[in-house]
Specification:
The chain contains 21 helices and ten strands. By secondary structure, it is an alpha+beta fold.
């Protein structure tokens, strides 16, 4: 089976439309989804349910387009019956593959209850929205109206909500896909590559991959920590949230000895290991959830979470101001023990501990404490650059940070004030920012 990594603009946009329909049921989606859902009119939100849920099986292509506008132009030029026939054909085929059920397009068109039954057989793990299915069935019997509704809604959502958003996100997505293409796949079987990226969610693989010839892993701009799947006739598109692309997957240098020590020290505590256990069992937990599960005090939980976050094992996001939620970074855990295994086997690029000398054991050793945090700002320019290159590894490629988030990441490095450290990262072009300083991101 052919496996690829691709930016896939059409699939990314279609996927974002589907996310708007599930914002109330899925935690961990991006703030863009939550914000956009609140701003949609009731009519637009309903049309998105019909198009982004009821008709999505017909809209997913097998080959991607260079741009979403090209996709829209092709859709506009297609016969009104094209979407209807494709939707019926895919429902019939998926019902056969996933449930062994036999239907015909004519039978689905003739009775909406039969159509609902076929949808349940085609998507056994997903609840069927009966009212949306009924409305979709009416459209199937009026292909011209179906075609016009799908095209007009996609054009409206693209113009009003997604064109500018795509322009903003595309550079980071292209960067993530480019680096992942060689480093994530590297000839691995698709399921292994998928597991490396998302850590879990591979449960859906067996039911989704039947009778396909190509799998494309797509960096999705709005998935957050959620993985979604869209299927064409012979292509399965796996849309993976950018928040799951840790630096482990896109870093260009191996894990150094000092960084490995920093990571392992963060794990040498029973309370922190318990927190990692809980985050492995749950997609995401708040700080209060973790306190309730572990029985530790709030100050202890805050200290443990800061240690794990600074070491890269957990990701933090804020909801509604002070509320913080945490999730495991499974690929960071895997990368840590892979680096340790390479060290022990002699296959890694980690240098052995040198014999005692009057020189520091590591070029940054005199500027860092045992936890790997900066305690002294180097006087020499070359040392500053080395230190900043070490610090920038804490930031995820392709993610946007507020100034407050940047400050929180840099705060443990007390050798210099946070503002000076933030400015230095920008001056050395390791971080870039908006002109007003509202958003920061790691540069390629």
């Amino acid at each position: 089976m052919e496996t690829q990594v691709d930016v896939a603009p059409v699939l990314a946009v279609l996927n974002s439309l589907t996310l708007l329909n599930r914002s109330g049921a899925a935690r961990g989606l991006s703030s863009w989804v939550q914000r956009t859902v609140k701003e949609l009119t009731v009519e637009t939100a309903h049309r998105n349910q019909v198009v982004g849920h009821g008709l999505m099986l017909a809209l997913v292509p097998d080959a991607d387009w260079a741009s979403f506008t090209e996709y829209l132009d092709d859709l506009a030029a297609s016969s009104p019956a094209t979407l209807r026939d494709r939707l019926l054909r895919r429902v019939v085929e998926l019902a056969r593959l996933r449930s062994g059920a036999t239907y015909t397009p004519a039978a689905l068109l003739a009775d909406w209850r039969t159509y609902v039954d076929a949808l349940k057989a085609a998507q056994p793990s997903e609840p069927v929205q009966v009212m949306i299915a009924h409305e979709t069935h009416n459209l199937l019997n009026n292909p011209a109206l179906l075609h016009d509704l799908a095209l007009s809604h996609l054009r409206e959502m693209w113009a009003d909500w997604l064109a500018g958003e795509w322009e903003r996100m595309a550079p980071a997505l292209r960067q993530a896909a480019g680096r992942m293409r060689g480093q994530v796949l590297s000839g691995r079987p698709v399921l292994e590559a998928l597991h490396t990226l998302v850590g879990r969610d591979t449960w859906a693989w067996e039911t989704l991959s039947a009778d396909i010839s190509r799998t494309v892993l797509v960096p999705a701009p709005h998935n957050g920590v959620v993985t979604t799947f869209l299927r064409g006739d012979s292509t399965l598109w796996v849309c993976i949230g950018r928040d799951l692309f840790s630096a482990e997957l896109v870093r260009s240098t191996p894990v150094g000895r000092l960084e490995l020590l920093h990571r392992l020290q963060a794990l040498a505590d029973d309370s922190r290991l318990h927190i990692l256990e809980l985050l492995h069992q749950h997609e995401e937990l708040s700080a209060q959830d973790l306190i309730a599960h572990t029985g530790i005090t709030q100050s202890s939980a805050s200290r443990d979470l800061n240690n794990l976050r600074n070491a890269g094992f957990v990701r933090e996001r804020r909801v509604g101001g002070a509320n913080k939620f945490y999730r495991l970074a499974p690929n960071h855990v895997a990368g840590t023990f892979e680096a340790l295994e390479q060290l022990l086997s002699g296959q890694g690029q980690l240098e052995a501990t040198p014999a005692p000398s009057r020189e520091p054991a590591h070029p940054l050793g005199r500027f860092l404490n045992a936890a790997g945090n900066m305690v002294t700002w180097p006087p020499k320019q070359k040392d500053r650059l080395l230190l900043l290159q070490y610090l920038v590894e804490t930031f995820e490629v392709g993610r946007l940070y507020s100034e407050k988030e940047v400050n929180a990441i840099l705060k443990p490095h007390t050798g210099s004030d946070v503002a000076a450290l933030r400015r230095a990262l920008c001056e050395f072009r390791l971080l870039d920012r908006e002109g007003d300083g509202s958003r920061y991101w790691r540069t390629p």
